[in-house]
């Protein structure tokens, strides 16, 4: 069989290597330059490739195409392949054909990465043989070649799910559905929701579907009664209308029941030691704890591992403390909803650093939180007019800056012991920074510099 791989990033190169290892001929095509590390892998394997172009004649020779999730359906080469009737699949679909390992697959508009990393951490800390894959930046296909793991924890975006057909997770997790990427889904929330729900459409009674019972859009689009899969909903509250898989008894205690109904046997797991902040992370913990229990991990191990978890950078990440003020880097909060979760999750008075490239933001949902919790707002962006108009009459103090170093210095000056300085921009980063990672790193560096300066001053006294 002849495979053409479109896109030579992590997923594409992984798919190319797996397809070749399984005896197929392979050609890789990328419309952009291929990163040196990936080019090296293709050359070492002797896989032919092209970059900076798509040669239609070469691509249309394919028996099957593996498409990068970043290539939209409307791309001319995809339209040409559809016209010809060539099957187009994702790297995840290809990988699923060649592994017997149990896949725990996690999707949702928000919280995917945190839940994926926490689930992986819980399994790994318990000594299980587990791989981390998917949208977190590791190719499932390349790992499947070695077939060294009994479990994979896989973060899946809607784009990756769109080109899956037979792929069947052992556990599928749906955290939430809120409007996002609708330009790829005919501006239809229903189409986007169906894309997310593809994660569990092939599951049968041997599989488990973990989903958020508090999410209105999941309730609207998931037809629970029609599915044979074992369903384990989770909620922040005990909801008698559900035979729930997991819910909170109070802020720090989770009730877990893997066998709802007649054989019900509940157990309590304490989450107090977890460093994760905010209501959304309490939901993420419910999903991860359910996955861990289904994998056979016992309560004491889960409680110990929750305490030792470190989340991915730039997601409500503590980066330092100075004069009793904590500094938290939430640079990944590039939209209003993510900033809402951050403001909602912090109980102490907040000096908030926000701003950047506005994406048509409506800040109205943040106003009640800002009124109650934000003592000062520092606008960090080239154009702060919308932020000033929204929050000028809401927060006691507002000022502007165009430098991260200045923003951190001003925030530290305005903060009192017990306060939190929070970088949660609610905006994209491209006006002053390369990306949200660059913005978050500059924040952490500026905090470190302040801390170092204070240490030096104290040493010289």
UniProtKB/TrEMBL annotation:
<comment type="pathway">
    <text>Cell wall biogenesis; peptidoglycan biosynthesis.</text>
</comment>
<feature type="domain" description="Mur ligase C-terminal">
    <location>
        <begin position="314"/>
        <end position="427"/>
    </location>
</feature>
<dbReference type="Pfam" id="PF21799">
    <property type="entry name" value="MurD-like_N"/>
</dbReference>
<keyword id="KW-0963">Cytoplasm</keyword>
<dbReference type="Pfam" id="PF02875">
    <property type="entry name" value="Mur_ligase_C"/>
</dbReference>
<feature type="binding site">
    <location>
        <begin position="108"/>
        <end position="114"/>
    </location>
    <ligand>
        <name>ATP</name>
    </ligand>
</feature>
<dbReference type="InterPro" id="IPR036565">
    <property type="entry name" value="Mur-like_cat_sf"/>
</dbReference>
<comment type="function">
    <text>Cell wall formation. Catalyzes the addition of glutamate to the nucleotide precursor UDP-N-acetylmuramoyl-L-alanine (UMA).</text>
</comment>
<dbReference type="InterPro" id="IPR005762">
    <property type="entry name" value="MurD"/>
</dbReference>
<keyword id="KW-0547">Nucleotide-binding</keyword>
<dbReference type="InterPro" id="IPR036615">
    <property type="entry name" value="Mur_ligase_C_dom_sf"/>
</dbReference>
<dbReference type="Pfam" id="PF08245">
    <property type="entry name" value="Mur_ligase_M"/>
</dbReference>
<dbReference type="GO" id="GO:0008764">
    <property type="term" value="F:UDP-N-acetylmuramoylalanine-D-glutamate ligase activity"/>
</dbReference>
<dbReference type="InterPro" id="IPR018109">
    <property type="entry name" value="Folylpolyglutamate_synth_CS"/>
</dbReference>
<dbReference type="InterPro" id="IPR004101">
    <property type="entry name" value="Mur_ligase_C"/>
</dbReference>
<keyword id="KW-0436">Ligase</keyword>
<comment type="similarity">
    <text>Belongs to the MurCDEF family.</text>
</comment>
<keyword id="KW-0067">ATP-binding</keyword>
<dbReference type="InterPro" id="IPR013221">
    <property type="entry name" value="Mur_ligase_cen"/>
</dbReference>
<feature type="domain" description="Mur ligase central">
    <location>
        <begin position="106"/>
        <end position="292"/>
    </location>
</feature>
<keyword id="KW-0573">Peptidoglycan synthesis</keyword>
<keyword id="KW-0132">Cell division</keyword>
<keyword id="KW-0961">Cell wall biogenesis/degradation</keyword>
<protein>
    <recommendedName>
        <fullName>UDP-N-acetylmuramoylalanine--D-glutamate ligase</fullName>
        <ecNumber>6.3.2.9</ecNumber>
    </recommendedName>
</protein>
<keyword id="KW-0131">Cell cycle</keyword>
<keyword id="KW-0133">Cell shape</keyword>
